[in-house]
């Protein structure tokens, strides 16, 4: 029996692991380097960015205040006084918050480079036509991620902070919010929305590998609606208006994903017809 000649360019499993390791190392270094820059910009990161959504003059509150007055709703967003104080109850609380916030800031800002390293690892396994049609992957994925981050920062985080920071069970209880709890609320809103906005990209690749079709997405649209509402209820205050504000963009992304899945299948069908004619 003839023995198969090994392709000199073919990589073994261990070679792939080694390649992946270096991509992860470079991605981590990028996050750490950007995080070090963020660490040095402490005043801007905390006073302007992190604590921005708790200040009464935050742009979102001004907008929601005008909308609530126009629609005749409660003027909960029109307060001119800070809702609560933030304090640190742990000896190393502020230093730890400084380090971890810098790392997360490094991840958010370096996200396009992290995607670039991922793409460098995945792209050699794709056909040339697939690489050509996916050239805009890094740009589109980064754009969607940053749109999600901005949506989380300017919409979800203020809604959550305004509701949870002003909620009381008794006048005997004063809201002194722990630093770690406050930062985790802002971080969860920002990172969660950033990743949720990647839905069209995820659907694109799942369609490419044959795991998803437009028919499947349409069939489970009602289930997806329920899941979106549950997610909205988890990351926003338990009022209908806030949940709708968060749910609508996600539902739009889901509908967009259906069109993207259909577009991918049409391209695949055209390519198959051309290949059949050529053979």
How would you describe what is shown here?
The chain has helices spanning 13-40, 42-50, 59-71, 93-109, 111-122, 128-133, 137-166, 179-196, 199-208, 214-219, 221-235, 240-278, and strands at residues 85-87, 176-178. It is flat and about 80 Å long. It has a two-stranded parallel sheet with strand order 1-2. Helix 1 crosses helix 4, helix 4 (93-109) packs parallel to helix 8 and helix 7 packs antiparallel against helix 8 (179-196). Helices cover 73% and strands 2% of the residues. It contains twelve helices and two strands, in the order H-H-H-E-H-H-H-H-E-H-H-H-H-H. The protein starts with 12 loop residues before the first helix and ends with a helix. It is an all-alpha fold and 279 residues long.
Q: Span between N and C termini?
A: 30 Å
Q: Total number of β-strand segments?
A: 2
Helix content percent band: over 70%
Query: Radius of gyration, rounded?
Result: 24 Å
Q: What is the SS-derived class?
A: mainly alpha
Q: Largest beta sheet: what is the strand line-up?
A: 1-2
What does the overall shape look like? flat
Uncertain parts: 1-8
What is the succession of H and E elements?
A: HHHEHHHHEHHHHH
Question: What percent strand?
Answer: under 5%
Main β sheet profile: 2 strands, parallel
The average pLDDT value, as a whole number, equals 81
Number of helices: 12
